[in-house]
């Protein structure tokens, strides 16, 4: 995530400085909190499970809208399966993607067809599969299921893969303030749901933890129930431009494939952006605007999926963490492009305070 960097934190306590977004204060003026004690990043290198045999597993991925190629959490899930194939020799894989307006019956049918074909485990990528899984899992008690971003399915053959998105988003909020020239930042959520509220909550708390002066814009592309907000780059562009017009100069999105539109707005407006889920600076689908991506809040769906497959192959599901948080590098931030190298010690200092319990990040705004 954040290689072992020893750059000196640039922020100092600015005391009674009163710069605001309207006043066009620089980043140094915006930061009003004393930086935490410097901490070197711990290595996030993980030992590949090359000694684990998963050749008996047939893995199915039921994607949410956007599917493989969304440059976000669907791609992250796919990366976890791809790596498991390479390291552990997974026997067979298949995948299918949800449509933006499909019914619950369609989701149930997708999971049922995968189970009927003998796929085991079946990984449902996204909370939208919760109700479908509640109906299908009991019908296939000998098939293992996992679901990303939901822990409401109380069945013995269902494993939740959930994350502390608010913790990683807190670091995104810190980074946004340190890089903002206007002391004015923005959050763009895809769909107004409790899950995406966790991203908002952490981002706002992180921004306000380091600045008494920062202004934070918050907008959602669609209301709860309309999941098109995760796959509408055009709307992401419009909302991103609106926030820039209000004075924001760093935009953080948690909007799936719609995030490409946010990046494009930032590029056109000479602003910066923060990606989500995957290291979006490295994603081919947003390569034309990658220079505006100063960092990404890493939600390691790839790690969770990979570890889940490994645990199944070793018949040890109890080895999985209850929640993938900062303490197990289940969330974090990326350093591709080098734009946050100069504040790495600051970010790592806040990470340590969260892991040590000195800072408690709220999961609700």
TrEMBL record:
The keyword Membrane applies. The keyword Cell membrane applies. It holds the Pfam family Bmp. It is found in: Cell membrane. InterPro entries: BMP_lipoprotein (IPR050957), PnrA-like (IPR003760). Keywords: Cell membrane, Lipoprotein, Membrane, Signal. Residues 1-53, 82-106 are annotated as: Disordered. Residues 60-362 form the ABC transporter substrate-binding protein PnrA-like domain. One of its GO terms (cellular component) is plasma membrane. Residues 91-101 have a biased composition (Low complexity). This is BMP family ABC transporter substrate-binding protein. It comes from Saccharomonospora piscinae.
